[in-house]
Amino acid sequence: MKKKLLNILFWSVISAAFIGPGTITTASLAGASHGVSLLWALLFSTLACMVLQEGAARITIASGLTIGEAVELTFGNQPWMKWLLGGAVIFGCAAYEAGNIVGAISGAGLLFSLPPWVFTLAITGIAAVLLWGGSAGSIARSVGMLVAVMGVAFLYTSFFINESLLAITKGLFIPQIPADDILLVIGLVGTTIVPYNLFLGSGLGKGQQLGEMRLGLIIAIGLGGIVSMAVLLSGTLSSLPFSFEEMASVLEKAVGLPGKYLFALGLFAAGFTSTITAPLASTITAQSIWGKGEKNWEGTGTYYRLVWGAILIVGLVFGLLGLRPVPVILLAQAINGVLLPVAATGLLLVLNNTRLMVSHINGPFSNFAGLLIVGVTLFLGIHQVARAIFMAIGYQGSFDSPYFVTISLLALLPLIWLGIRIFKR
């Protein structure tokens, strides 16, 4: 039992990585705007996260290779696929970094009355020192305990909501997509299934047995999903327009004055730890795909530092611009939700590589689940891109059934291509 508990704690780094400012913002706003009707998106993304993270860890357990090395073996004669997969993850890290720093600044601003630029320079400066010195991991884990405490506060607050059990059940199992707020739905998916976590999960799989990996991963991600849902339920107590100040007030009413400070500290901790994690993940991704065996891609190498430095600068710029935090964080989550099908497609193709996976190759159920994840995220992503184009050209018409049929067909075409590639093995 002790070994199992330690294994769950070991894999909880995955759920800790996706419970950041993005999760707090998107889930709280979903609850404030739409009640419990979008719980299904968090349930779907939690289950999808389990499927994809299990696949990422299984690649390393089966082959002893990182995802980047597996991608090289699978797409060695298709360099465009490596660039597409690596580029999608690294671009997603840059988007996350903008939201991370803005979230950390917002948390600090709830505690201290200082100009935002002071927090921005301090946070990015400390992150740069830690990344340069290589001690970021231990600092991030210790500060992350504050996020766990905040999660408990949200779980407690969720018991005070006014929604019935029937309404919560319908919200969990009957998908609803608000036509005017699909960006929020994509954000809810993108906040749980973090593409760079696939590379992190692959690394954690080294030395693990398949059974213990699956048990630890499922329980750890499941608990993270429950906390995310508790954040959404707590958000139903908040009123619009949504703000971090309003959410802190909700927790203060539920658990007393400590609730406000727990939220502020947790939001800061979530943003600060993720400010370190996103640049680090981008370098691990780049190193894994393009830098095998090269000195410049080692932890103190030039290319390694250039990649994390570039990601950190993106966050610094967004922090200094003084933009409203909630829209920036929502956009970052939505961008990663749109990029998610690319990462999921690459992972699925690697998992069906017969030369690489041998006895651990994807079975029919895993392939069906993977195709479903790609299909749903493709539909949501194409739908959002299409709406953005229509809005840009001033389209004022309704988005009726023919429109949805067209979007579904557009999502179906790459899905058919992926299915053919998988089953041709």
Largest sheet entry: none
User: CATH architecture, please?
Assistant: Up-down Bundle
Principal-axis shape: globular
The helix/strand order is HHHHHHHHHHHHHHHHHH
List segments where confidence is low: pLDDT < 50 over at least 5 consecutive residues. none
Distance between termini? Answer: 40 Å
| CATH first level | Mainly Alpha
Strand content: under 5%
- The overall strand count is 0
What helical percentage do the residues reach? over 70%
Structural class: mainly alpha
Structural domains: how many? 1
Mean pLDDT: 81
Rg over CA atoms: 21 Å
Quickly count the helices.
Answer: 18
CATH superfamily: Amino acid/polyamine transporter I
By CATH, the topology is Amino acid/polyamine transporter I
